[in-house]
Design goal:
Layout: H1 5-14, E1 24-28, E2 31-35, H2 39-50, E3 62-65, H3 75-90, H4 108-114, E4 123-126, E5 140-143, H5 146-155, E6 157-161, E7 164-171, H6 180-191, E8 199-204, H7 206-209, H8 213-221, E9 230-232, H9 237-244, E10 264-269, E11 276-278, E12 286-288, H10 289-292, E13 299-303, H11 304-307, H12 310-320, E14 329-332, H13 336-344, E15 346-347, E16 350-351, H14 352-359, E17 362-363, E18 387-390, E19 406-410, H15 412-421, H16 428-431
Helix pairs in contact: 2-5, 6-8, 12-14, 12-15
Length: 432
């Protein structure tokens, strides 16, 4: 009996030749990641449970990125960052990326990739549900609670159940008006927000492997929106090139066996998918843009670990060039590297930053910003009666701020087209 890619990686981490779905194993963790929201309670639990002589199992494997509530005057948010600073200083952490310094990197899930922590065949845990983003690199990555993270920080180990896998195959080629965001919204509409509960979502097919790494990260990022334990895409030449440009760490590439057992399989023709949205108030409330076009908007948002990568801004620029937005439109780079690329990358001879500025967009500093709502002074935050279309990952009531707002999730193409019209707009009107 064969194994899936997820089973193979977890077998390696457990020191076993073979594991199967439902089996419980101790895993050796390669990387533990945290940030300013969950880092402080993780540290508090670690100190309480391991005592005055507590030691970090491996300082080189602990990575901390302040990124959520950082550009704010909120005293509680600022206190959290100060706790991280003191902890990093006390324990001389080499992988602490402090805000307000040249080391600041932006949103943790993108920074993990850009700083070389995402390595094929490894195991990464983080105190954030979207840690599953890293699975785009042919590795196992998932989010855990603060108590589990504290245990990892003290031991380097965690007790886990091997998940079943669901395989999603996207055949054909992606049309020029679609992005990976449309693909994952298609998946969520099929299986709903609990259809992948405690399962691995494995993405395969020619349309997936045609994607660059940033687009692949969009797919795995939103696996958690289906309740999944992890999302994963096998590493290929595109993956290895990205990794080798950022780290010299040795790694092992795994692939699913042809005879591997899956909970279920889904197959799609990428060329037959239309631009999609998730209507309020759930990521699985899928509909075509065509069916909701004309819906009046009060705000547009292009950002987050899901939709604030350089490829997302390249897509948006194709529509926003020589246009003017009709509603407030926020551009929030997911990483400081992306923020720099807005200056360097051009479309038709104009930098992406200039395209957005001329269109009337508000360009913010790199951070999670309004994706998670945040304090009242968070840029782009939804207020009462807002109707927002966003490249982010969740649209539950209050997710981006006010519980009295409505949020539509969509691709950067769709958000950009909608910003120009001030109503939800099919991007094909600009791209075909």
């Amino acid at each position: 009996m064969g194994m899936t890619i997820t089973e193979k990686i977890l077998a390696k981490a457990a020191g076993k030749d073979k594991v199967s779905a439902g089996e419980n194993v101790w895993l050796n963790v390669d990387i533990l990641m945290s940030h300013d929201v969950c880092g402080p309670p993780m540290i508090q639990i670690w100190k309480r449970e391991f005592g005055a002589k507590a030691k970090i199992w491996d300082k080189n494997k602990l990575v901390i990125f302040p990124d959520h509530y950082i550009f704010t005057a909120n005293e509680h948010a600022n206190r959290n960052v100060n706790i991280l600073r003191e902890f990093a200083d006390t324990y001389d952490l080499p992988n602490y990326y402090d805000v307000g310094t040249e080391r600041y990197k932006g949103v943790c899930h993108i920074a993990l990739a850009e700083e070389g922590f995402n390595v094929p065949g490894t195991v990464l845990f983080g105190t954030d549900s979207h840690t599953c983003t890293s699975g785009a690199f042919g590795m196992f990555s998932t989010g855990v609670g603060n108590t589990d993270a504290a245990f990892i920080m003290g031991t380097g180990k965690i007790w886990e159940k091997i998940p079943e896998s669901i395989k999603f195959t996207f055949d054909g080629s992606l049309p020029p008006y679609l992005t990976a965001k449309d693909l994952i919204l298609q998946v969520l509409g099929e299986i709903t927000t609990d259809g992948g509960t405690y399962r691995a979502l494995e993405f395969d097919g020619s349309a997936v492997f045609d994607l660059n790494m940033y687009e692949r990260m969009t797919l795995t990022n939103m696996a958690i929106e289906a309740g999944a334990m992890n999302g994963i895409i096998a590493a290929d030449e595109i993956t290895e090139k990205f990794v080798r440009e950022r780290t010299e760490v040795p790694y092992e590439v795994f692939n699913s066996d042809p005879e591997a057992i899956y909970h279920s399989r889904y197959q799609f023709n990428a060329g037959q998918i239309e631009p999609l949205v998730a209507k309020p108030h759930s990521p699985d409330n899928r509909d075509t843009v065509r069916n909701v076009q004309g819906t009046p908007l009060t705000k547009c948002y292009i950002g987050s670990c899901t939709g604030g990568k350089i490829t997302d801004f390249q897509a948006a620029a194709k529509i926003l060039i020589n246009q003017e937005v009709k509603v407030p439109t926020f551009v929030v780079p997911a990483s400081t590297a992306t923020e720099k690329q807005l200056e360097e990358e051009t479309y038709k001879g104009i930098s992406l930053r200039q395209i957005f500025e001329k269109a009337g967009c508000v360009i913010a500093q790199s951070s999670c910003a309004a994706c998670l709502g945040g304090p009242s002074d968070t840029i782009g935050r939804a207020v009462d009666r807002d109707v927002v279309i966003s490249t982010t990952n969740r649209n539950f009531p209050g997710r981006m701020g006010s519980k009295k707002s409505e949020v539509y999730l969509a691709s950067p193409f769709t958000v950009a087209a909608s910003a120009v019209r001030g109503v939800i707009t099919d991007p094909r009107e600009y791209l075909i």
